[in-house]
Amino acid sequence: MQEQNGKVSSGEKNGHSSQVTKSYSIVHAIQGRVRLRVPRLRHDRDYTQRLQALLEDDPLITSVRIKPAAASLVVTYKSSAVADAKMRSRLNCLIVTAGDVEIVPRVAANQSLVVPTTDTENSWPGLQLSAVATVLAVLGGSFGLPIPPMMVAGTIVLATWPVFQRALAGIATQRKLNIDFLDFMAIAITTVQGQFLTPSLMLSLIEIGENIRDRTARSSQLQTLDLLNSLGQFVWVERDGEKQQIPIQDVRRGDTVIVYPGEQVPVDGSILRGKALLDEQKLTGESMPILKKQGQPVFASTLVREGRIYILTERVGNDTRAGQSIKLMQEAPVHDTRMENHATKIAERAVVPTLLLGGIVFAATRNPARVASVLTLDLCTGIRVSIPTTVLATLTYAARHGILIRSGRALEQLAEVDTIVFDKTGTLTKGEVAVIGVESLNLSVSSLRVLALAAAAEQRLTHPVAEAVIRHAEAEQVTIPNRSKWNYQLGLGVQAEIEGETVYVGSDRFLRQQGIDMEPLNGHHQRSASAIYVASNGQLQGKIRYSDILRQESREVITQLLTVEGVEIHMLTGDNKRTARAVAAELGIPSMHTHAEAFPEQKAAVVRELHEQGKTVAFVGDGINDSPALAYADVSVSFANGSEIARETADLVLMQNDLHGLLEAIAIARQAKQLIQQNTGIVVVPNLGALVIAVLFGLNPLGATVINNGSTIVAGVNGLRPILKHSPQKTLPSAR
Fold it and tell me: Where is the P-type ATPase A domain (predicted)?
């Protein structure tokens, strides 16, 4: 793209000029802010509304100011999150997209997914009101100041409004009396009796607990990645014999799309003519590029490493295989975002018995104070505060150690995990080719000479194996000789003139085509599918073996997980069975738990099947092809450097891009589970003891509040222990 006099026009690519001109100009731009002139804003009100909706919906844009009369558009964006050049390209795409009259329903649909934040409960200042009520009660009671009782009672009534709403909602929608109803009754009785300090303290602790719990809740809205945003904004097509560049949204079924080296394939289709080396790792997980020719299928989001292909478009946008992967992820079950645990369920079940007990006490004593004491000692408040406090402290502690756990539910499920499924490429392996051995097949030639010849021949080639050979030669500090003439044959190898020698580097088939005697490969030297061969002066000199090597920590992490009682390890990969089994054997993963040649839908099916067997499944992956499996797992794990959709789908993100973080995360989750059980005991024991006293002998409501709230505070402080630790525990407590 070139900017000329503020006007942006597409430049030439591979000799083909574009006829597309974008109807805007950049007036002024600084980092984080750009002013544009868009003439269409003057006369097209609908376009203006569509553009504003699109811009305001973009998470990278912080503010939008449009002046239609001046055709002026000013956009402020997060410069720390996106490069200026990339943001201008993004703005260009949005300006073009706004011209689509169908964009309004799409934007409206997207906006309807956003969880409202202005409802009464969320905006009601319950915590502030309860704090004011507590202060007024103390000033009017302990200090004896002339505070009108109606003022204190009125403040308590206002602060009680959210509790009343939740109690009413429980009756109306769930057809049951919930914890909030119990709280409301205790607050109402003590307020009517004029004991203002008791309900004020109760309200303050309830609101603190609700705020903590809401902060640990994960939004139920799945943030998905628009497939078109992951590809280029413009596509080369051939129409009526002419090449032209059009917006990706305008590509239709039947179009002939042209893809050049270094570009992503934007559609699903079949190759009409040409051939290319395609990197499908992003979609299938296959670590090695694949040579594809006329008639073979190609898929959106795959990368053309070398070559040029003309594709007959069969599927576009969300109908492509990559789009269907995203759809699979969107259709996965959305789980409750609040931590479900046994203690809370017991507390919920205790509501009706507590009310009945209060009724019996009142029938026997006719004393409302004793009834209020019984209702105050409900076990629920302490549990509702201590559990979220523990969760929030644990999530904070984990984040400080490079582990992002998105919700309390994910933390709970992680503590129960008994099966872990790993994607291979990019998760257990580095996801890039590396040389693992250089072997001379000629006694008069050293292995370093073999490497030097190969590196010289492979210079400036973009094939992953060529890049790996160059890296290995540089790491071995080999002097790479100069290359003169050279000829590269896609999918086969390269011929080059090096220091007066004719050198061939490539596949077994390529060298045979050049008349090289491959006899030295017989006997002790077996052919290897993951190797290239080097010949010079008509004679085979050696071979270079390569592989997608394991992460440094993979063996150690898998070994530790296999030694933990109840943990079952599976591996999924898009690679062929032979490669998959070799990697599994190296890691100690049983062959029966190794699933090869797995596309996204098969990966999701494996996870679902394990889940249906009653297992609690964690899935670890990092690509678009992993997103459906991530969504269907009980706990999904990805890396900070994984694909955007994998990060957004994952419950747990390892910010250090190291599998050791998974071990640490499981240990943290299990310790949090133990802490929650401990806090439950801290709450239950004193409250049950006080309840017995209140029923049999009577207990002042304020005393009951002190015991109830005191145990809550102790449990809450105990729940903060994770963030008071100085270093994480490395060992895994038993899951059982």
Answer: 235-330
